[in-house]
Specification:
The complex is a heterodimer of chains A (199) and B (1003). Chain A has 199 residues and is an alpha+beta fold. Chain A has four helices and twelve strands. In chain A, the strands form two sheets. In chain A, strands 1-12-2-8-11-10-9 form a seven-stranded mixed beta sheet, with helices on one face. In chain A, α1 packs antiparallel against α2. Chain B has 24 helices and 49 strands. In chain B, the strands form 13 sheets. In chain B, strands 8, 9, 12, 13, 14, 15 and 28 form a seven-stranded mixed beta sheet that branches. Chain B has a six-stranded mixed beta sheet with strand order 40-41-42-39-33-43. A six-stranded antiparallel beta sheet of chain B has the order 45-46-47-44-49-48.
């Protein structure tokens, strides 16, 4: 089955700009499960219901994320979160959520519509500055923060990792544009896209 | 020969000679020179011709204020017009030309005109060349040839420009004494600091200063500050960076010239970078610009600003002449005479307008044996292509007129200083109204409108100690207001400085003749505005300084009147009999100096200009040679031409394939919104014109969405996925607007309805398999559901496995044929698509694009929102009342508007079909429809063609149109007069051309 899968940056894997050793690496994660979750943050039952499935309550502080085991949960809005998890667990977690939650909520599989990138290397701060007006300086954006923001002329969910690298979740239909944009932005540092098993 | 280069001194590298050309002639300068410094070193007097009169002009200043030495750098694609030679760093092979002057700067045709006749007054062109009116075009050609500044390149620029977004606590503009003190103070307080300066080196006025700070040369202090700032990770130093604009919300633009000093081209590097800065606080330490003195022939080459003479001497080791006359109204400029004297050159005289100058610098000059003529002014410069002498006359007691005969002083350099004007440009950009200060004889920044403060000479502090102290205070205040509450103590920088005497205000130097009779006294060098012109403007009735600016062109040049504006406004004030504060000043606007378009565009060019959105099957389409159509930002296959096929051939083939066997369309771009919640059904009921509340799981329904005005806004199919769970399809172009529309109503009008919306447009890839053989194709790759019409009827959907992938199949149709729309998560999109192509091979499955989709749906009379509707069409106009439910308990959006009297008019434009008399004639879309083509104009319009195609299936052309009262005009003949003179006759018919009973989609 895996041969039937093409992640959004499939055709970019191995592409490189700039000369010499690539100082910036854009790593496209293999297919992940992406679940969009909506519910009432004032509803303890909802928060606890989610916790009972994913191991952590949905963060209610704007622009924060949390994780438990192999599941990460990102604040997208006052009543909206993104769950990122291994694709192998997606169906099980989705149905568990439907079982455990009651009342008004929504769970939507959006795995095919977006992709997870990790961007790391010396030029990353400048690449982000070229792409977005948001302040990604560690004073303003420490590890554990996330933000949905304009990214070039598209959008991205950006989060900061403990190791100082950045995760980007971008939409599939804009992925070709954004990959081209990032390769261009990283050209002065040397920039490479890698995917799947080529880490 | 660098005839004017002094033996030693300056911040140039004499070991590194640099070759360059100016107006085609070869010269040599040194690394560290600006083009202006190198030209002066080589004794080049004339660097340009004036804009209006073609008078010879020389270098006046040494920075952004330079009005005359405006050059075109390089040639071809990389050429840059309108650069100030005073700001162009010299590099090997530099090639520059004057922007003005025709046929050349050494001989200019306008100069002859100027000598022949009287000087051209303001409005000259309108007053002279507009009569007779038809001759203007003849004159214009020659006038334009002779005038104008710079040439834009004709080729596209091969260099790379980009943009960086910056955020900081404190942005310091200017790295002179005040700016460096401010940046140091802010950085010590822990602030994230950006300090930008337009020059290649930090230091500002200190670069050419002989003063000391903390007992050492000023540049040592600069080096200390740079070391301190450079070691701080929170500080960004931006040399060669002009802060060109200050916009709302403390947003500022900086143009950084990264490689311009290395050469005209910089392959593989970023030539210029735009920094888009959001600063919490700003310190404007932009310095001050020395003010010229307005006297007769003050534009002769060799008349320069006093501080510029010093700068060329001290910083570049260039003496811009031999025998200097200094004309001043203040103490400050005496330093120039002292510098000149120390360099071993001759100071002929210092001419000081003040009756009794007694300041410390005055005394120093006298001690050097320099002769000071107090109470005198230079009334006129003598010479033709270079100053040869200065006519000096005594002033009367109140400095309003000359009080005796003029004597001539021979000289080849006339340095002038009318005091200083704070560089308040950026403060002006914020809307702060400049304030006149009598003591300083200048405008200082007005009350702050944004989070900014000025410091140093930008604020009128002209002593070095004052600049340092104000800078330090401003830096600490800015850091504090940016939220950094760490301790910060005042820095103490020691400067040994003597107080200066007050300067004299002198905006127009008196002449024995009246202003209008005296030789020209220039106010604005770049655009040739004279004192007489300003007085004339006042006499002609202009009172507002903004009107005078536009009438005389004062301050309109690329230099924005950095030198001349204050004098001009003061001259206007006097002509109007008003004070300067009441007359006011024009408002400076961005850019401070011209900004290149390349930097403004950045990387948003060529393929990156706008996002192209692709479906998961994009590469397949490309490999099949598809032509693409833009639909919003999406690229959709338009048609798939085979070798040798025209578009018409390809579309005909695709259309026939669908009706006769099977075709496949990539429908992934349609908007898709997942809707969940206990009130989802009720919400849909209110959004759509028809009923949704009772739609059962597994069923689909087509709906129309209206705006409040009753006009069609979007259409599409919504499927019920399960209890309280729906999937809405929208048009491709309308997806984002529809989602926003749903959120708007839920959040603002009906927050009590519990419903959530989530876009799943990108999640699904959709292959529409359509045609009589569609089922046979799907059967080959899907065996887990019963695909028969009985088990899976039209307007139902099913979960199924297609080619081993979990899918949803919808039996909805936009072609009127049996259609199965296969939806899979997009990462399986290309795989499943190719499996369907494989399965369809035996039926000749034909991929088709949007053009065929349009033809097929038009054959069925299906509308496209935005093509057949234009925001003024109701469901009734479209003949779609069948989709409007009047029985719903709650209303639906737009319902009330549908019963307004205008909506019930019988002569509204209504959707009909048109059949041309000649079946091969295809009407142009947009063609107007009339009843009588021979009617005398204006011909009453009946409507227009909205969609028009050739239908290969029907063997004739088909068109949809909106026609007044069209629904009741079936069979009537109408006419479409075309732009080419032809008139096409057509019959009004039903908008459904094919399979009117809709049987084919139900099989």
């Amino acid at each position: 089955m895996s041969s039937s899968i093409e992640t959004p940056l499939h055709y970019f894997h191995g592409q490189q700009t700039g000369s010499g050793d690539a100082q910036v690496t854009i790593f496209e994660s293999p297919l992940c499960g992406h679940l969009n979750l909506r519910g009432n943050p004032q509803d303890e039952q909802f928060l606890e219901g989610v916790e009972s499935v994913v191991g952590v309550k949905p963060p209610t502080t704007a622009g924060s994320c949390a994780s438990s085991g192999d599941i990460s949960i990102y604040w997208l809005g006052p009543d909206e979160w993104l769950l990122l998890l291994p694709e192998s667990r997606r169906a099980e977690v989705e149905s568990e959520l439907r079982n455990k939650l009651s009342g008004h909520f929504s769970v939507v599989d959006v795995s095919g519509g977006q992709t997870l990138l990790n961007v790391r290397g010396d030029g990353v701060a400048d690449m982000l500055k070229k792409s977005a007006s948001y302040d990604f300086h560690s004073n303003n954006f420490p590890a554990g923060r996330c933000v949905q923001t304009h990214f070039a002329k598209a959008t991205a969910l950006v989060s900061k990792k403990d190791d100082g690298s950045f995760d980007l979740v971008i939409r599939r239909s804009f992925a070709d544009y954004l990959a081209s944009w990032l390769l261009d932005a990283g050209e002065e540092f040397g920039c490479r896209v890698v995917g799947g098993g080529e880490v | 020969m660098q005839t004017n280069r002094v033996a030693s001194g300056g911040r140039i590298n004499r070991g590194n000679a640099v070759n360059f050309t100016f107006n085609g002639k070869a010269y040599q300068g040194f690394a560290g020179d600006t083009l202006a410094a190198a030209l002066l070193a080589n004794g080049v007097d004339i660097v340009g011709r004036s804009f209006k009169y073609g008078r010879p002009r020389g270098i006046v200043g040494h920075g952004a204020e330079e009005p005359n030495a405006i050059v075109q750098l390089g040639s071809g694609a990389q050429t840059v017009p309108n650069l100030r030679a005073t700001q162009v760093e010299l590099y090997e092979g530099l090639e520059a030309h004057s922007v003005g002057g025709w046929p050349s700067v050494d001989f200019d045709v306008r100069e002859v005109l100027g000598f022949m006749g009287k000087m051209m007054p303001p409005g000259f062109y309108y007053k002279t060349f507009m009569r007779p009116q038809n001759l203007w075009h003849f004159y214009e050609r020659w006038i334009r040839k002779a005038a104008g500044l710079g040439k834009a390149p004709l080729e596209s620029d091969p260099d790379c420009y980009d943009k960086l977004n910056q955020n900081c606590d404190v942005l310091v503009v200017g790295a002179g004494p005040a700016g460096l003190a401010a940046a140091s103070a802010a950085a010590r307080a822990g602030a994230r600091v950006i300090i930008a300066d337009e020059q290649q080196e930090f230091g500002g006025s200190l670069l050419a200063s002989q003063q000391q700070i903390d007992g050492q040369p000023a540049m040592s202090w600069v080096d200390e500050r740079l070391a301190e700032l450079g070691n701080n990770d929170n500080v960004m130093l931006l040399p060669r960076s002009t802060v060109f604009g200050y916009y709302d919300h403390n947003f500022l633009g900086i143009l950084e010239r990264r490689t311009d000093h290395l050469g005209i081209s910089s392959p593989g590097q970023v030539r210029q970078r735009m920094h888009r800065v959001r600063a919490k606080q700003v310190v404007l330490a932009t310095g001050a610009i020395e003010r010229p003195l307005v006297f007769a022939n003050n534009d002769l080459p060799g008349v320069m600003m006093a501080s510029s003479v010093s700068t060329y001497l001290n910083r570049y080791g260039v003496a811009a002449g031999n025998n200097l006359v200094l004309f001043t109204t203040n103490d400050n400029a005496y330093q120039t005479a002292i510098d000149w004297h120390k360099a071993g050159r001759k100071v002929v005289k210092i001419v000081d307008s003040r009756p009794e100058p007694t300041g410390a610098l005055v005394n120093t000059a006298r001690e050097f044996g320099i002769d000071v003529m107090a109470g005198h002014v230079v009334v006129e410069a003598k010479g033709r292509r270079r100053v040869k002498g200065a006519m000096v006359a005594p002033l009367n007691d109140n400095a309003s007129a000359v009080a005796g005969a003029a004597i001539r002083l021979d000289c080849d350099l006339l340095a002038c200083s009318g005091g200083w004007s704070p560089a308040i440009h950026l403060s002006s950009h914020t809307g702060a109204k400049p304030q006149w200060n009598d003591e300083l004889v200048g405008f200082v920044p007005g009350e702050s409108k944004q989070q900014e403060r000025s410091a140093g000479s930008a604020k009128g502090a002209y002593s070095l100690a004052g600049c340092l102290q104000q800078g330090d205070e401003a830096g600490r205040e800015a850091a504090r207001k940016a939220g950094l509450d760490g301790e910060s103590t005042a820095a103490s920088y020691q400067v040994d400085e003597q107080p200066q005497q007050p300067q004299q205000a002198m905006f127009l130097v008196p002449h024995a003749k009246s202003t209008s009779r005296a030789p020209v006294q220039f106010v604005d060098f770049q655009l040739d505005v004279t004192a007489a012109a300003i007085e004339l403007a006042a006499r002609e009735g202009y009172e507002s300084v903004e009107h005078v600016k536009r009438y005389t062109a004062m301050g309109f040049g690329t230099d924005q009147g950095k030198l001349g504006n204050i004098n001009g406004m003061a001259i206007l004030a006097r002509a109007l009999g008003r004070g300067i504060p009441e007359t006011g000043t024009t408002i400076f606007r961005p850019s401070y100096t011209p900004t290149t378009f390349g930097a403004i565009a950045g990387r948003d060019v060529a393929d990156l200009f706008d996002p192209e959105r692709y479906t998961a099957m994009q590469r397949w389409h490309q490999q099949q040679g598809a032509e693409f159509e833009n639909v919003g930002q999406w690229k959709r296959p338009w048609y798939y031409p085979k070798p040798g096929e025209t578009m018409h051939d390809a579309v005909n083939r695709e259309c026939l394939a669908v009706r006769n066997s099977v075709g496949m369309l990539d429908a992934s771009t349609l908007g898709k919104i997942d809707i969940q919640g206990p009130d989802a059904g009720e919400f849909l009921n209110r959004m759509y014109t028809n009923a949704y509340a009772k739609l059962a799981p597994g069923k689909c329904r087509y709906g129309l969405m209206l705006k409040e005005d009753g006009m069609i806004f979007d259409d599409g199919v919504t499927a019920c996925l399960g209890p309280n769970h729906y999937l809405m399809f929208t048009t491709t172009g309308g997806a984002a607007a529809v989602l926003a529309w749903l959120e708007l109503w839920q959040q603002t009008e009906w927050p009590e309805l519990q419903v959530y919306f989530t876009s799943v447009t990108d999640h699904w890839a959709t292959a529409t398999v359509t045609g009589p053989n569609a089922r046979k194709v799907i059967e080959k790759v899907c065996d887990d559901i019963d695909l028969s019409n009985e088990a899976f009827p039209f307007m139902d959907w099913r979960d199924a496995t297609v080619a081993g992938v979990s899918a949803r199949i919808f039996r909805i149709s936009f072609t009127g044929e049996l259609s199965l729309e296969v939806n899979v998560p997009a990462h399986h999109g290309r795989y499943v698509w190719e499996k369907l192509v494989e399965a369809g091979e035996e039926f000749g499955i034909t991929p088709y694009g949007t053009e065929t989709m349009h033809v097929l749906r038009a054959e069925k009379g299906f509308i496209i929102v935005g093509q057949d509707t234009d925001g003024s069409m109701t469901p009734a106009d479209m003949g779609m009342n069948w989709v409007v439910s009047q029985k719903k308990e709650f209303s639906f959006i737009g319902k009330r508007s549908l019963s307004r009297s205008d909506m019930l008019r019988e002569d509204r434009k209504q959707l009909v079909g048109l059949k041309t008399r000649d079946p091969q004639d295809v009407l142009p879309e947009g063609a107007q429809i009339v009843n009588q083509p021979e009617h005398a104009p204006p011909v009453p319009m009946q409507g227009h063609v909205t969609s028009s195609y050739y239908s290969a299936n029907l063997g004739h052309s088909i068109a949809l149109a909106v026609v007044k009262g069209g629904h009741k005009r079936m069979g009537e003949t109408v006419y479409c007069p075309l732009a080419d003179g032809r008139v096409i006759e057509a019959e009004i018919v039903s908008s459904i051309f094919y399979d009117p009973k809709g049987e084919r989609q139900n099989v």
